[in-house]
Amino acid sequence: MTIPTQMSLHGFIVTAPELTYGKSDVARFRARVGIEQWRKEPDGSFTKLDPQFCEMVMFKSAAERAYARFRVGDQFVASGYVHEYEFDRDGETIRREEFVARRIGHDTARTRYSVERPSPDRDAGTETGHDAQRTVEPSSTAVGI
Fold first, then answer.
1. Do 103 and 62 touch, CB atoms closer than 8 A?
2. Which residue ranges are recorded for the region named Disordered (predicted)?
3. Which domain covers residue 94, as residue numbers?
4. Looking at the whole model, is its pTM more than 0.85?
5. CATH number of the domain bearing residue 29
6. Is 69 exposed, middle or buried (CB count within 10 Å of its CB: 0-12, 13-18, 19+)?
């Protein structure tokens, strides 16, 4: 059996996110994002390079939730796909690409946050008996799954 996977992108929000609604009233989130770049040196050390930038978009209710939760500087991890497109400007064909995120969350390795879980009264069967809200603090060691 093959594990279903999607392309992912981790980076940081560079420009203030925008939320717009198209002709069909579909929500669209758009932000410019940066992706850190590193080069491994022959001695085993790493040199930080200039970041690479691209546009990231989301649609529908995911766009509205992302707009409410993300700000400039936030570190994120998103899954989705790259959309390549063309348009004409002054008689010249311009090729661009954007990352279309289907899912997005704050990068847990770089972000402090709290988790709010539904109470048992609102969503039966999902509560495990732990506190409905738990603060997650970053640690100095990474934990793998």
1. yes
2. 110-145
3. 7-112
4. no
5. 2.40.50.140
6. middle
